[in-house]
Amino acid sequence: MTEKSYDVVIVGAGIAGAIVAKTLTQAGYSVLLLEAGLQAGMAFEDPKAYENYQSYLNNYYNALAKVPNAPYPNLQDAPSPNVLDLSPIQGTTPDTTGYFVQKGPLPFASDYARTPGGTTLHWLGTCLRMLPNDFRLKTVYGHGVDWPISYEELKPYYEMAEREIGVSANVEEQVYPNTGEGFFGEDYVFPMHKIPQSYLDQKFTEGVQGMKVGVGGDDIELYVTSTPQGRNSIPNHRYKLTGPVWDPYTNKLVLERSEQASYEPVGSIWDPYTGQRCEGNASCVPICPVQAKYNALKTIKRARRENLDIVTQAVASKIEVDPTTGRVKAISYKKYHDPGSPEHTTETARGTVFAIAAHSVENAKMLLASGVANSSNQVGRNLMDHMVFLTWGLMPERVYPYRGPGSTSNLPVFRDGDFRKRHAAFIMPIDNWGFGWPTGAPYSSLSAAVNQMNLFGKQLRKHIDETVSRQLLLHFECEQLPQSENRVTIDPQYTDPLGNFRPVIQYNVSDYTRAAMAVAKNISNQIFARIGIQDQTQYNPTDSDYLTYDGVGYTFWGAGHLVGTHRMGLTRHDSVVNSQQRTWDHENLFLVGCGNMPTIGTSNPTLTMAALSFWAAENILRDLK
Amino acid sequence: MKKEKQQNPSELFLALSAILTGFERVDLLGTGLAGAYYDEVVSTVGNRVSDELWSTIHQIIGRSGKDESRLETAIRRQVLASPKFGPIARNIIQMWYVGIWNELPQAWQEAYGTSPNDTTRVISPEAYKQGLIWNVMGAHPPAAKQPGFGSWSQLPGSDLI
Amino acid sequence: MSEGPPNIPEAARIKTVASLKRHLQTAIELEHSTIPPYLCALYSIKDGDNLPSSQIVRSVAVEEMLHMILAANVLNAIGGEPSINHPRFIPEYPTYLPHSDRSFKVGLEKFSKATVNTFLKIEMPAEPKSPPEPNRYHTIGQFYEAIEDALKRLSRDKDIFTGERDRQITPESYYGGGGGVLAVHDLDSALQALGEIVGQGEGVSRTIFDGDHRIFGEKVEYAHYFRYNEIHEGRYYTKRDTPKGGPTGKPLPVAWDNVYNMRPNPKMKDYPRGSERWEKSYEFNRTYMALLNDLHRAFNGQPKRLLTSVVTMYEVKYQAVELMRIPVNEEGMTAGPSFEYVPPDR
């Protein structure tokens, strides 16, 4: 391993790294993929792949708190953040309970998974494209920054991402504010038909039919649309795209169109017949038992394996730069044998081009630790998440939640508009899993019924049937602006057992977003009143991410979206990478992942990140030629 | 024959479970966990307390016969309201409903003893999967007993019409 | 598929389209008849144990379902109307298989060596001792030969494929393995559909045991007989093995004891009507009938209903396993799914 020099060395076997690895190996180049997680997780065939995944499932079944990282091993040598570690920050004392060192004032609420396949193992799978104005936030609304690229330029790569992930959606239903004609390519269809919308969605939609909400003096009509997602559904026989393939003559990565082509849903990695359709396990977060939901192992499996070397249990720690040329020479990594023991060997990975794809926080951490790529002083800064603002209540009649994927419909009405001059945009997914997220239902519902209401027997059954079946969770996913003081740093005081830095995070939420939460609660109140929903929303000052705005308290949760820590830009003074996703400071160092995104918009960032990863791969291919 | 059956502690446990959960005996047997849950109770609270519980149940059933409301009142007063039996009974409900054993309250442990078994935990993956609460909700335990593509668009059980 | 001209005496040939339709209806019932026994064996295997055996039995059961669909497609293609939910659709177990030599009965039993033995006999038709007579076949092989012959002969002079295209079950409505569903609209596709049925199930005749046919290897789907034989012998076939020699590959571990101890051939009348166990048993049969109703509707003009039937299929499984956990006697045996017809209203 130490002797061979690869065309490309990639750090991180999540979706970003997987897409780059697959694209490069299929074009004939040699790739070394370094992954911090366990070797057992990097299995692609029966029975190892199956057995390893069953072990994740068993962890899930045995977990008391079924949080996103519950199924996956938390490794001392490559720790992952866990939402269970969150607690309010007291004064100026950092909270060091978990992997993150939270300096606050608000604890950063999201997590990620350091394991083969990365966070796509526990993601929900929602796949929405960003909107054109998300790329021009500064010019259009006077807030945030503009991207150095436009939606139009990213469009072909979105199509590649939608094919790679396998997105199910009905394109004619994807109507978003201010996008006009031509948002999708002409005749574009998604690989699979939409995931059926839930019964709960239907009832909710009936309830808001024709409803207008008053927002800042305007009356805006609500409408509900199905949510595109990376989850297997019925293939669309009109989908005729294959690839993408690298054309070395035109220097382009392109999808090809063929009348003979047909899309086949990609099932589990251990057995292609399992997971060909979503089976309604209702556990997408944190684990899909049949892998009907996309995970990045499926992409790695499709790489050209003879060109790909994978080293697991390898934590990349230092990027080594040649001081005279500024080019990256190598990446040194710590290889551990037993994740519970700090013993390790230090190895070196050499290549022509290097791509860091370890997720935005880990990327930033590694750059800071190595002292590279930071002439702009932006590395680690501009950390963004979506504020998940939740309201919940009992519908007038049973809607049977806890069924199906986490969300099958959303209201896109507030994803863009003039109001963005005053407050953040937000998307409104309708959540299918009852009060689970904010309250721990149905366990909490049962506990209350038994311990406080003193119910038992048939009365208890009746009560559960009549109340839990009516639980509705409404979700407002609010945009956050890039802010310099929201950042990841390192501090020699805080290291993990391998001696690598732990991320030290300073974080807060600005009024721009807090104002949106107030607007959201107002809208929620109007909707609840109209449908006749019994509001049971409660925010407590003891919640980890409790904040106030205009004298009113709100709680938010993390969406699992970590964005912005090494953003792209037009100049080397205010960004870390250029529009090619190449660092300004080091010619052969590319950064891949959500860290490249200058703004977060109102869509789950994975699809955008996957699109960007294809583009980055294309840029790397051009370099290698 | 029936009388002898009811003196058997596991039978009494099953009878108590049926009253506490509101499910029929066959429903409980159908989970395959009656034995495991019985063992859980006895090994955690100890033989002395559990024997007292069974004999209390035996008496209650004997006296109430088929009178359901009398049965329920007796269970409420003598079991659920009892400092000794109440927490156990509430745990039995939660075992059947969600497969979780809840550590007994501090006060109980001080009065009746502790056991290394007595920790709040999911009893086993099978216990999780056989939780009855999901049946009541017209759903299924997440990540188990998957109902099939498209099922979430319909009313539960609508395919059975 | 059969080689050479069919061995069907003139008198035994299917002469009319009406008769062909009746034969295809019988084919559907035939493919269905082994499903309840296979499912009982499958569901009796405790969750998580015996994965290879469970995968094998499941794959065979799924293929029988595929065969039902293919037979229904052929029947629909020639203008027929499959009937899935009539009172005699489900055989009364234990039963002789239709068009067999009646040398053994098939029942509803838990997974065991004896059960797997029975499955081997099902999948290995006996050598026909005599040619078929009108409407009477001595082996399943003869039965399908007659159908094939009729399709070819009757379509020579006129177009018998008059069925509406949108009654066909297409791959869109089906998922999860078992090979391809194919829509049938002409002789070629009809023969292909039959070939799929015969190949997967009946791809075994005595002749394959002579000589050194090499038919195994990775990514090859073996006929059902050989899959069951792997369980029976506790070994996988390698590509160097022959049917005569048996499997000599890696061991296939089978934990014969890790099964629910289902009492054989359960019936609703095992319990007093209205008792708890009777109710559970009845509920199962209602669910099974709902499945047959879904299939009936799917095969009669609503092909998309096949997707709904998947949901019902899962219900069938969960209720079957639930029954298998309920004790019925002092010897530690349990209840089980009885797969009995129940009429729509109580």
What's the layout of helices and strands?
The complex is a heterotrimer of chains A (about 625), B (about 160) and C (about 350).
Chain A: E1 5-11, H1 15-26, E2 31-34, H2 48-62, E3 101-105, H3 137-141, H4 151-165, H5 199-208, E4 212-215, E5 218-221, E6 225-226, E7 241-247, E8 252-257, H6 297-301, E9 308-311, E10 314-321, E11 328-336, E12 344-356, H7 360-370, E13 387-394, E14 407-411, E15 426-431, H8 436-439, H9 443-452, H10 457-467, E16 471-478, E17 487-489, E18 504-507, H11 511-531, E19 534-535, E20 546-549, E21 552-555, E22 557-558, E23 589-591, H12 605-624
Helix pairs in contact in A: 1-12, 4-12
Chain B: H1 2-7, H2 9-21, H3 25-29, H4 34-45, H5 47-64, H6 68-80, H7 86-98, E1 100-101, H8 106-112, E2 121-122, H9 125-129, H10 133-136
Antiparallel strand pairs in B: 1-2
Helix pairs in contact in B: 2-5, 4-5, 5-6
Chain C: H1 17-33, H2 35-44, H3 51-77, E1 95-96, E2 105-106, H4 113-123, H5 140-157, H6 187-202, H7 224-233, H8 276-299, H9 305-323
Helix pairs in contact in C: 1-3, 1-5, 2-3, 3-6, 3-7, 4-7, 5-6, 8-9
Describe the 3D structure:
- The complex is a heterotrimer of chains A (625), B (161) and C (346).
- In chain A, strand 7 (241-247) and strand 8 (252-257) form a beta hairpin.
- Chain A has helices at 15-26, 48-62, 137-141, 151-165, 199-208, 297-301, 360-370, 436-439, 443-452, 457-467, 511-531, 605-624, and strands spanning 5-11, 31-34, 101-105, 212-215, 218-221, 225-226, 241-247, 252-257, 308-311, 314-321, 328-336, 344-356, 387-394, 407-411, 426-431, 471-478, 487-489, 504-507, 534-535, 546-549, 552-555, 557-558, 589-591.
- Chain A starts with a strand and ends with a helix.
- Chain A is built from 12 helices and 23 strands.
- Chain A has 2 domains: 5-190 and 228-386 and 479-509 and 556-624, FAD/NAD(P)-binding domain; 195-227 and 387-478 and 510-555.
- Chain A is globular.
- Chain B is mainly alpha-helical and 161 residues long.
- Chain B has one domain.
- Chain B has 10 helices and 2 strands, in the order H-H-H-H-H-H-H-E-H-E-H-H.
- Chain B has helices at residues 2-7, 9-21, 25-29, 34-45, 47-64, 68-80, 86-98, 106-112, 125-129, 133-136; strands spanning 100-101, 121-122.
- A two-stranded antiparallel ribbon of chain B has the order 1-2.
- In chain B, helix 2 crosses helix 5, helix 4 crosses helix 5 (47-64) and helix 5 packs antiparallel against helix 6.
- The longest helix of chain B has 18 residues, at 47-64.
- The termini of chain B are far apart.
- Chain C has 346 residues and is an all-alpha fold.
- Chain C has a single domain (10-260), classed as Ferritin, core subunit, four-helix bundle (Ferritin, Up-down Bundle).
- A two-stranded antiparallel ribbon of chain C has the order 1-2.
- In chain C, helix 4 (113-123) packs antiparallel against helix 7 (224-233).
- Chains A and B meet through helix 2, helix 9 and helix 10 of A and helix 2, helix 6, helix 7, strand 2 and helix 9 of B.
